[in-house]
TrEMBL record:
Domain Ketoreductase: 22-194
GO biological-process terms attached to the record: abscisic acid biosynthetic process
Top-level taxon in the UniProt lineage: Eukaryota
Catalysed reaction equations from the record: a (3R)-hydroxyacyl-[ACP] + NADP(+) = a 3-oxoacyl-[ACP] + NADPH + H(+)
Keyword presence, NADP: yes
Any one Pfam family match given in the protein's UniProt record, by short name: adh_short
Enzyme class: oxidoreductase
Gene Ontology terms for molecular function: 3-oxoacyl-[acyl-carrier-protein] reductase (NADPH) activity
Natural source organism: Mollisia scopiformis
Family listed: Belongs to the short-chain dehydrogenases/reductases (SDR) family.
Its EC number(s): 1.1.1.100
The protein's name: 3-oxoacyl-[acyl-carrier-protein] reductase
SMART domains with a match to the protein in the record: PKS_KR
Keywords: NADP
Amino acid sequence: MAERAAQIAGHLNYPKGLLAGQVAIITGSGQGIGAETARLFANEGARVVVSDIDAAKAAQVAENINKSGGKALAVPGDMLDAEYIKTLVKKAAEFGNGKIHIIVNNAGYTWDGVIHKMTDKQWENIIALHNTAPFKLVREAAPFFRVTDGEPRCIINISSTSGVHGNAGQANYGLAKAGINGLTKVIAKEWGPKFGVRANSIAFGHILTRLTAAKEDGAFVTTPDGEKIALGIPKGQGSQSANANLDIPLRRAGTATEAASSILAVASPLFSYITGQIIMVTGGRNM
């Protein structure tokens, strides 16, 4: 531990980047916050594995990073497919010469509905995507995190204020995001003492993404069985309403780059003594 602290103290300038030499899997990184996180990680010297269900978008993100002088590999697939998770970890380890240092569990979307109208399919799909899939990825990657080679290891689970404070119309999503916070703390307690693995959740508030854009814009995702799920919030409601930002001290929504920057901060050695926390990135809302 003292050796690691000395290593951090001796490289405060990080001339090769905050994440130099590290290998990161970022799920849901074909667009939005995930894509920005991949870009920022690569800029800081990480080898980035771009995971997304949309193969074309994943390939484009990886290509842009590689063209800019970074190192990225697209490994597209469905996080609800257990075999894909095995492939993702295998290819990430190969890309990292036998090592994986960071996992960012970012993949997900919302499928809202009030409690008395929510279907079993809505419930089960969101729980599977936001809880079961991250758990299976962490479990599959365990051999690359339960190591004592002196190198940093970090797991970041993307949560939401819906999992901390609840949100009407999001029984499934609220439960799932509360659940990922619990998983985060378990990882921190199990893998911290011997292996030094850090695990934190980042609970986002109102961030400008396709999930908070106007539903009328027409964004959607398609489930494995072909059902299209409309994304966004109807104009005039929720984050689309005229007074949506009045309870945010900064009086504005956050950007995808700001959200990704918080993920980079948590992954970096600047957060080397922070683990097991739910870090609120909300512009001050619900403080």
